[in-house]
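dumping these here so i dont lose them again. two proteins, back to back, each one seq then structure tokens. dont judge the mess
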Amino acid sequence: MNFCNIKENLLAYRAETGGHPLGLDRVFGFALIRAWVYLMFVGAAASFMTWSGEAIRPAFFLVSAGALCIALFGSALTGDRFVKLMLHPTARAAGPTLTGVGTVLLASSGAEGMIGDVCGIIGAITTGLGSGIIDLGYGELYRNEPPGRTTFEVPLAFFLAAVAYSLTAMLPPVTSCVLCALLPVVSGWILFVQQHAWSRKRQPTVRPIEFDLKSFAWRIGLCACLVGIADGMVRAAFLSSNNLSIHLLLQWPLAGAGLITMLIVYGAALLGSEQSTRTIYKAAIVVMAFFFTLLPIFTGAQDIESVLALTGYGTFNVLIWMLLAEISANYRLSSTRVFGIGWGMVTLGVLLGAVAGDAVDRFAPFSPQFLSFIALVATMAVLLSFLFVFRESDLIALTEEPEDPSSENFSGTVTQVDRASSKNAAAELQAPKSSTPLATPRPRFQDRCLEVAAAFELSPKETEVMILFAKGRSAARIQEELFISKGTVSTHLRHIYQKMDVHSKQEMLDVIEGVTRE
């Protein structure tokens, strides 16, 4: 990192976002649904959103998280059918309606007997399904925003959500329950009415392409599960060692952790030499690991340790959301598939973390040595997830589109006759032309490109890419014009270079200009 990069990065973000890095209504709406998550389902037995102020039973947390996973994974697997369904206003309204009604039912789950059980189960299912629709809606919204804008908006939204949680938790139980039920309704109104997510009034900035869903799920899933398990273990150990309820842990330290997360992300974004969420993610992962190693040192300093214990959780959620938005926007991937799989895996990771935390809690009370061991295991899990963050090559491979075997041969096993004819045609193209008065007129640039493409047996799509690239189009511009992914552009250019036996753009231009070189 270099402080000289701050001005350059600020100018770059300003240019990328058109001088308006923040959409306050979008930030506010996203903050409201994240505040609802904090109030209802940060962890098992973490929510006190019942009319009597008693904790919601852990079983309802597990049911709601399971329903959320079903909504997210189901949308990813159905893909276009889910998007078509969401084009209907009634389907979009189902998200905030189910979540709001489900919140009221969960608030009634403290009632005695079967009534409380029925309200709790129905409320858990409806909140899981409804909040999944809202999460996917904000994923679609941020997929169509510049990554620079997402970098500034998402950390702020999570911080505001933490503050809203702290303020709402201070209110009387009935008031806090009513406000909690209104949060997803207002957030959904901003998302679907003001921002027009999935509406025909808001056309996507890029058209999504197909990609390897299994590989994506594996990379994101392992990363999310590792960090989720680490966070669950650390949180459980911290609560047990301090004899502290999770309600007290979250009330104000959550806002402090959100502030630290915001500073980490903004600092990495402004000081980094590369404007990429993956770069920010890697820097923040190291900070998270450092915080985990500090926990045994601050045992007894409850406020400091509470903030440190929550910073890892908050930072990971912020960065995963930013990473999914960036991948979806830059590589032309469906937000429904990316966020369905990605956020679903995060939810699964949190569930596994809760299970791991429960296992750790059985060893309480903890010795200082055992606390240090837990911190070490958590740190190693976080650092291992560092290895599974997407690299550029991974994303290119993920988004490579299959080619038509009839138009070209990828394996290079063309016949010797084909090779000879190709080389002869190429040689003829590059041979000097006669300068006699009867020489044909200089052909247009595109015609020369087509002749070269025929000589080197480029596929139709490779020919399109070559013409645009030779005209000076950037890879990003070629993406926009041909509606293909960044990975596919890179693949086509690599094949073009191989077939033409060139190693740079200038060499490719020399071959094209050789058609009419005198």
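---- next one ----
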Amino acid sequence: MKYRGQIFFSVLLLALLAAAYYPQPNNAEKEAVLMQAVLSGFGQLHYQPKDINDDFSSQIFDFYLDQVDGGRRFLTQEDIAKLEGYRTSIDDQAQAGQFEFFDASVQMLEAALDKTQGYYREMLETPFDYDTNEFIELDGDKKPFAQHDDELKEYWRKYLKYETVERIVNKTKEEEKKGEEEAPKSFEEIEQESRKEVLEFLDDWYGRMRKLKREDRLSVYLNTFTHIFDPHSEYYQPIDKENFNIRFSGRLEGIGATLRTEDDYTKVVSIVVGGPAWKQKELDENDVILKVKQEDEDEPKDIAGMVINDVVQLIRGDKGTKVTLTVKKIDGSVKDITITRDVVVLEEQFAKSLILEGEEGSEERIGYILLPSFYADFQNKNGRFCSTDVAAEIEKLKAKNVDGIILDLRYNGGGSLRDVVKMTGLFIEKGPIVQVKSRISDPEVLKDSDSRVQYDGPLVVMVNSYSASASEILAAALQDYGRAVIVGSPSTFGKGTVQRFIDLDRTIRGFNELKPLGEIKLTTQKFYRVNGGSTQLKGVTPDIILPDNFFYIKTGERDREYAMEWTEIDPVEYDQDVLQVDNISKLRRRSEKRIEENAAFQKILANAKRVEQQREESAYPIGLEAYREMREKRQEQADEFDGVMDQVVLENISNLEEDLPGIEADESKKARNDEWLESVSKDIYIKETLAIMHDMIKEK
């Protein structure tokens, strides 16, 4: 790998030297280097490199247009015909560090924004004909680009009518709920309000699109190239990589507030409990931030109209530094608030546990561990690591003499490969966990080298179709070893690839005026189960399948363009002598019987069929009465399945005693914990998993 890195650097150096001779304005030198750096990195380091040729160029052409106009709202076939001459030359431009196609597309999109904004502003000035029944197709995959401007304008007429009709129906329902003491609004008033709301919604959307910088559009273009290699390879602008690190580690340095853009302003959405803003008690939810000033600046910077990423970069900063925010309070008063930045820990994504009491008349106690992600803070020696945290939760549960443990990996999109190996090792003696293969090397077997078994009791792992990557490694290993019962959706996500980040700044010596360039995340390896099969594309099929609302829909990696194929390699030797689940068939039959007799699960299956059918019905009527009838019919169907998860199905749920002081330390933590306990108490999937656990214990 070191040798290949040297080749990568050499190619980049040549690209830089070539780009240095481009006397082009608008940062063209940096863009040329960036494009060639991305192509060089992917060509040399990607698991499955592609030939950058005319076929690749044609794929880029089609996929890029889908990315920038997937809804077919802006471009016409006449527009695309003007771009068609670039179809097979994008590869040549990219390798030369040129952007003729990209520049032409941006100019065309900007012209399309002007044109279509004129459409909707003109059309929304007067009422539509709500008596004429017609249909609009809302799925961009099912309709071609409009042939010409007249056809595009007609689409916009239908689209604006659809948006207006939807609001009219909603507002009419609201009027029907009013009491007799309130005078009802006339249809004319409702209709006028609805058109006004559509205008405001579209003006806000177009305002955000017009605020996009060239670098944001370029990022979309570069990610079209990376996506053709595979869906998980990406280019990251510096701010995007910073956000990724925060999600991965659960830790950031800043003030501890969540922000969003509303119109031209930045509003505080929430305050992170335990963060600097929370401790100071001056910044509140719904405060509007007007200006930002660093401690070494004399004047604050007005952030009105600034995109959210730029605002975030101004407010985030190193621990111990100060930032002053000029905010407008909800009462209209304006106030300067100075906050000292500090480390902010996002606790909601960390592992936590509960005690689930046994069935009535039983003395069994089951431990439940929720793990939202495989987080790891490699940048901080005292940072949080999921394997360490789960080990700590296991020790706490063992001290309570639990009879079994449920590990919940639903919606866990993965994370640290190192930690999933360590975590799997908590449940077996030492042995192989996963095989990792690069494109030119033999498989490397990642092993648990610690012969200690931290937990040797009954174990059930919960997954669903959103459990991906590291979640699938753990589930697959424990399934292959026969150590645990895997319970959940028909299949997990199906991401069986490993990505690596390359900091483009570090690959280039000098040329500091071009930096920062950002990073590329590219697929360098595939991982395989110890039995030789891959989780790529197919995912992990649970031992016991529980129906969900997406039971009949293709989801996950199988539904993504340019996904890498499923493959297999030779298995490795593996065995364990801790606890062997050898009665899966009996456990499955008992679970299937309970599901057949459970009204809630049968409703979920029926609803899954409805969801499948409605997903295919993407053409909507836009006559007022026809739309109202369609909505009422769909609402009636939805009402049949409403409240499936509203009933309490688990009574005896409790926090561990040692966790209570931290939970009760402030009202916000306590409120979030109460909400979590309530959601667990109504979770029929946990209830059925608990029943499976009880069956395991009886059969042990």
